[in-house]
Amino acid sequence: MSILGVDIGGTEVKFAVVDSNGVVGSFSSVKFDRNSKKLIDSLKTKTAGLKFSGIGIAVAGDVDAEKGTVRFSPNLKWKNVNLKKMFGDAFRMPVSVENDATAAAYGAYILDLKKKCRNAVCITLGTGVGGGIIINGNIYRGATGSAGEIGHLCYEPNGIKCSCGNSGCFERYIGRDGIISIARRKIKSRPTMIPGLAGGNNDKITPETITAAARQGDRVAKEIWDEAGAILGVLLTDIVDLLNPEYIVLTGGISKAGDFLLKPAVRELKKRAFEVPSQKVKVIISKHQNQLGVAGAALLSIKK
Amino acid sequence: MSILGVDIGGTEVKFAVVDSNGVVGSFSSVKFDRNSKKLIDSLKTKTAGLKFSGIGIAVAGDVDAEKGTVRFSPNLKWKNVNLKKMFGDAFRMPVSVENDATAAAYGAYILDLKKKCRNAVCITLGTGVGGGIIINGNIYRGATGSAGEIGHLCYEPNGIKCSCGNSGCFERYIGRDGIISIARRKIKSRPTMIPGLAGGNNDKITPETITAAARQGDRVAKEIWDEAGAILGVLLTDIVDLLNPEYIVLTGGISKAGDFLLKPAVRELKKRAFEVPSQKVKVIISKHQNQLGVAGAALLSIKK
Questions:
Q1: For chain A, which ranges sit under pLDDT 50?
Q2: Residues B77, B83: contact at Cβ < 8 Å?
Q3: Which residues of A touch B234 (CB under 8 A)?
Q4: 8-state DSSP, B16
Q5: How many of the other CB atoms lie within 10 Å of CB of B19?
């Protein structure tokens, strides 16, 4: 059985044919178009030669998985878009819709973990910080399908105001903007190659610039990742003490910092968390970054 | 089928006969004795007239439920005590052993919630702050049986050092000592009846004293519960955003403050948490406080 996995993000829309073993083929993408009809047309043209019998969609935003609707996506500027109906009408086959972090978590469970554990958590570190929880080999959705808002656990109860309504959410500190804020503060105090790598324009500093500097041995860059990693370690501790998972998989643009981020995060985790569960858990960075959304959305669709 | 539920705490050991419907009969208790042999002897004498065919034990501490061993209990000053073997030898029947917060959570699921939901969280607010997670109608244990350490989620990453190794755990702020600290600070600034109710000795202020004062309209007492409730609300938000449960049940001595604690906690939750899951969740105080441990331990034993 082959399913078309589609991962709709604010810049590009990735797609691929995925079989029931999770093998991903014909990976490609089209540009995102806010006009959902045009977006579907362009996907139809691009996938004309591919063979599949259903569609699984991952989408950034608050999704009603049962109805197949995007209730609200600030990223895509969509509100109440019924993707299940629109894709169903266009392709004439079964369609299922998932939140992108949920799909990525299931993708990581199959592609990275190969189902070799029962309980795992996936954290997507990007502009936002999202997540998905695997319990007993299944996505855990909670009472209204809202479970897994890992980035909105509280780091500083009186901290930076968050768009979700809470204050001091982890997303504000270790999401893309949070890390750039750490960098802007740190580069003031000591010489570093970061501004140079950003073309002399501090507004153009990105997590990628910081990692590039760290790779060349820049100490300030390493300290930025140390600070971000220590905050991530507090989040990992919350997850380990509460959910005691066998694996935590990190994915998303920020996780591409690799060991610069992972090492201080795990150090903080070992320092803070209960001994038995913190010795048990393995924290890894996904090796299938780009494919997790399409694979997870397709595989969850097959499961249904 | 009737099972003897036994709830071992540092002061008293409660016991009762529990049937498979969760009906609790012959509820009674003996004094705790650190000498486990003597404790079992006294339980044997006291239960001589009761009919039961198995024993389910709830115990404060780190429990290896599979082996039936208390790995470590700072409260009881026990280390590696194999209760399963000792009770089994004495009573000649099957014995199972659970952490007390885990047992209480399952007890609350049956007695308070009557299994009318799938996903729930129980928070035990006492000297320590513990918890248990119900997922799909079962206790969720995690990879090493350590899941549910709700009191050790982080409230202030650089806050009060905790015995668990972490800093700033919620337990330090809304456990018994945390609440007494809030009271000691608040009573300095304004007139209040709390010191009088504590016999003029500020070292004897307890959560019960504060509640007694609040019931008589003492404003400082109410403000103490407002402050504690707001902190509890941050914890509730973490749980709702991450696990999206249908119910959260509060139990333990601190929860006897009732609405003085519950109202500000829910107010903070509504302010901070995601809208859909925070509208869905019902936060209640258990109506079966004392019985949750014995009932849950017995019912989990029947389930096995």
A1: none
A2: no
A3: 154, 157
A4: E
A5: 15
Residues A277 and A241: beta-carbon distance below 8 Å: yes
The dihedral region occupied by A26, where left means phi > 0, alpha psi between -120 and 50, and beta the remainder, is left
Name the nearest CA neighbour of B157 among A195, A231, A189: A231
Across the interface, do B154 and A238 touch by the CB < 8 Å criterion?
yes
Mean pLDDT within B256-277? 97
Q: What confidence score (pLDDT) does residue A165 get? A: 87
* Contact indicator for B129, B123 with CB cutoff of 8 Å: yes
CA distance linking residue A135 with residue A243, whole number of Å: 9
Ramachandran bin of A268, using left for φ above 0, alpha for ψ from -120 to 50, beta for the remaining angles: alpha
The two tokens of residue A276 are: 């038995």
Q: How many whole angstroms separate alpha carbon B149 and alpha carbon B297?
A: 18
Decide if A235 contacts A174 (C-beta within 8 A): yes
* pLDDT value, residue A257: 98
C-alpha span between A146 and A134 (Å, rounded): 14
Please state the rounded mean pLDDT for residues B248-258.
Answer: 97
Chain B (101-120) residues lying within 8 Å, Cβ to Cβ, of chain A: 117-119
CA atoms lying within 13 Å on the CB side of residue A72: 6
Q: What is the mean pLDDT of chain B?
A: 95
Beta strands, E only, chain A: 2-8, 12-19, 24-31, 55-59, 62-64, 69-73, 78-82, 95-99, 120-125, 129-135, 138-139, 247-251, 282-285
- Digit-coded pLDDT (tens) for A116-134: 999 999 999 998 899 999 9
Interface of B with A in 34-73 (CB under 8 A): 62
CA distance A120 to A244: 9
Sign of the four-CA dihedral A72, A74, A78, A79? positive
Q: What single letter denotes the amino acid at residue B127? A: T
User: Of B124, B138, B113, nearest to B293 (Cα)?
Assistant: B124
User: What is the pLDDT at residue B73?
Assistant: 87
Confidence label for B104 from pLDDT (cuts 50, 70 and 90): very high
Residues A96 and A299: beta-carbon distance below 8 Å: no
Opening angle at CA B298, ends B293 and B299, nearest 5: 100
pLDDT band at residue B61 using 50, 70 and 90 as cut-offs: confident
Q: What ipTM describes this predicted complex?
A: 0.94
pLDDT 10s digits, B164-207: 889 999 999 999 999 999 999 999 989 999 999 999 999 999 99
B window 115-174, beta carbon within 8 A of A: 117-119, 133, 135-136, 140-150, 152-157, 164-167
User: What's the one-letter identity of residue A217?
Assistant: G
Chain A residues whose CB is inside 8 A of the B237 CB are 154, 166
